[in-house]
Amino acid sequence: MKIRKSSEDYLEMMLMLQEKHGYVRSIDIAEELGVKKPSVSYATKRLKENGYITMDKDSLITLTESGMEIAVRMYRRHKLLTEYLTYLGVDEETARTDACKIEHDLSEKSFDAISRHVEKNKLRN
To answer: Which domain holds residue 52?
Structure first.
C-alpha cells in the first residue's frame, strides 16, 4: 500500500514526540505540525485503520511495527538531508524545511548516493 506524504509526516512527528516526551498525544501533534485538532483526528483515524498506530483508552498513540518502520525511514531521511544541505552551506532553518520537502520524493537510489557522500565526508573531517 502506498502511503501519503501527509501520513509520513504524521508518523515521523509521532516518532519525534515519542522520543522527546515518552508519549504521543494528538494535541502535541497538532501543535508541532501547525494543524488543527480535527485534522489530527482525521489523520489518526486513517493511520489506525491502516494499522500504522494504536490508541489506548487515554488516547495515547503508539506506533505499530509498520508505522515505526515508516517513521524511522522518514526521520532518517530528514536528518541526513538536513545535514547534507547544511554541509552545502544552506542555513539550518532552510535546510530543515527543504529536507522535509525532499524526503518524500527522493528515490532510494539517490538517497543512498547522498548518504554515502555524507558518510565519506564525515570520515575526512
So the answer is: 5-69
